[in-house]
Design goal:
Layout lengths: L2 H7 L14 H13 L9 E6 L2 H8 L22 E8 L7 H21 L3 E5 L6 H4 L6 E10 L5 E5 L9 E2 L5 E5 L2 H4 L8
Parallel strand pairs: 5-7
Antiparallel strand pairs: 1-2, 2-4, 3-4, 6-7
Helix pairs in contact: 2-4
């Protein structure tokens, strides 16, 4: 798959084939790509925890908040929950710069992982809304701070891209068949012309 097709195909998925297991090799390969990705000042402050054990996955699931725009939906049902996670953490012992660098790094790293996952038919959801109790649930040390939870699995839903309408509504939504629709601004809307006078 060429890069334009891969980027377009790499969509957020929130319902998974829970009974279709991921492998340790897949998650470790994704983390290796995150490790090789760009990092502000090359500080490489992030660490990653792969999780595949079903009981721990279930515990993580109950500490997450899903899909803010879908107010009537509390998250995937049993059988549609993620069979794996990668927890993205900042190591305070390594961090010398501001948190803005970490937000940049975790965006780059998570996109690298999601692109590589999509190439294998695995999709995911970046989750930044989680309960403070997740830190204790994962038995993390004080120096570790959770920045992002990446839920992963084989998709159990279809995601369709469409143009943002004239009203400018960018909220994703689901239709009666539970197809997930994601409005995207047009190239014309996001691209500014360069100045004509210097």
């Amino acid at each position: 798959m060429h890069m334009p097709q891969l980027v377009a195909a790499t969509r957020t998925v929130r319902r998974f084939q829970q009974n279709r297991a991921l492998t340790e090799r897949v998650l470790h390969g994704l983390i290796d790509l995150a490790r090789l990705s760009g990092s502000a000042r090359n500080a490489q402050v992030l660490q990653y925890m792969p999780v595949l054990e079903p009981a721990l996955c279930e515990r993580i699931f109950h500490n997450l908040t899903w899909a803010g725009y879908l107010t009537a939906w509390s998250g995937p049902e049993p059988g549609e929950r993620p069979p794996g996670y990668i927890i993205c953490l900042a190591n305070r012992d390594w961090q010398k710069g501001p948190d803005t660098e970490l937000y940049c790094d975790v965006g780059i790293a998570s996109q690298s992982m999601l692109l590589a996952a999509a190439e294998k038919g695995v999709f995911g959801c970046r989750i930044g809304a989680f309960k403070p109790t997740l830190h204790a649930q994962l038995q993390l040390e004080e120096r570790h701070r959770i920045f992002l939870v990446l839920a992963l699995g084989y998709p159990a839903e279809e995601v369709v891209l469409e143009d943002v309408g004239a009203e400018g509504d960018i909220r994703y939504w689901r239709d009666e068949e539970r197809v997930h629709h994601v409005p995207k601004r047009s190239l014309q809307d996001v691209m500014l012309p360069p100045p004509t006078v210097f």
